[in-house]
Design goal:
With about 160 residues, this protein is of the alpha/beta class. The protein has three helices and 14 strands.
């Protein structure tokens, strides 16, 4: 229901229908304690687990397809004065952002690569390469072993 309400608000926002996106954003906050602005784009198949409870997303964020975002996640950024460059956070396809993780960008663009995982309570302050695991405060990236790479490195069987 949460993402359906967001898609209605997003459609109204893109078609420049006034007032309705703000009302839906307020309704989402009241029902789900979730800050999900109509300006952010969310790809198909993406799931906000636990009804999106306590999730905050930056209006300029772009979330890819088939992502999993768990509760108490913050995708935020910006500077106190509005004179700096705009902040943009791009989350690739098939990214998992676990409970309590924070993705923060002070200025410019922050990218989380395709197939990456942000561990629980990690604080991401810089780019995360594709197919890696971001852990810790501040997050450091560990490359994930991909099945197709592991299979290609296995020696041929003898006999």
């Amino acid at each position: 229901m949460l993402l359906r309400l967001h898609s209605i608000a997003r459609w109204c926002y893109l078609h420049k229908i006034p007032f309705v996106p703000r009302v839906i954003k307020g309704l989402i906050f009241l029902l789900f304690s979730c800050i999900l602005p109509p300006e952010c784009s969310i790809g198909s198949g993406t799931r906000l687990w636990h009804h999106g409870w306590c999730i905050g997303i930056l209006p300029s964020a772009e979330i890819g397809r088939d992502c999993n975002i768990y509760n108490q996640v913050e995708i935020a950024g910006g500077d106190d004065d509005q004179t700096g460059p705009p902040v943009r956070i791009i989350i690739g396809d098939r990214v998992n952002i676990c409970t309590g993780a924070k993705v923060l960008c002070k200025s410019g663009t922050l990218t989380i690569g395709e197939g990456s995982t942000v561990a629980a309570n990690a604080v991401v302050l810089s780019d995360v390469p594709p197919y890696s695991l971001a852990v810790g405060v501040p997050a450091r990236c560990i490359p994930k072993k991909r099945r197709d790479v592991i299979r290609s490195k296995q020696p041929a069987s003898v006999g």
